[in-house]
Amino acid sequence: MKMKIKQQKKPNMDCINLLTSILLCYPEISEISVEPENEEVYISYTINEILSNTELKQIKEFIQDSILTYQYLEDLIPEKNDVVLEVKEKATFINIIRDVKTFSHGELRLLNEIIKDKFGKKLINELDYVPLVNTSVLTQLELIDTMLGSLKINPVEEKMVGIRENGRVIVYNK
Fold this sequence. Notes:
Layout: H1 13-25, E1 29-35, E2 40-47, H2 53-73, E3 81-88, E4 91-99, H3 105-119, H4 135-153, E5 160-165, E6 168-173
Antiparallel strand pairs: 1-2, 1-5, 2-4, 3-4, 5-6
């Protein structure tokens, strides 16, 4: 009698470290995930306000134009470049969907600054849990580029999701 043993996939530690580092360094991001099937990165911000349809349209156009300008200046031709805004209950969610191959730390920094500048105190974040100057955070920032490069070479096999909750960063596979 032959028995088949199901082997469990090992989680991609580079991806886990990447998502953790991004959430630690960018407290404005409420969720980030990597989808292996489409090789996409999903970044989500939460605004503590319901935006009007006009505001939704304006912010979407502004974010899209900013991303496209950055990509033009960096000579990038992305496969996926979506901005989706959703209103749920008492909040607005800004979801950015990008392909892993052309997504960069520079673009992430740009997106984060745009969102912070546009929404300020309306942006739900966990700044209280991030030290102002911390050498480990500075190290994490430096490593994000390396980890993004590694993700491009060694794709993720399972969907990985990183969220923050009460000052903790949680990364899990789905």
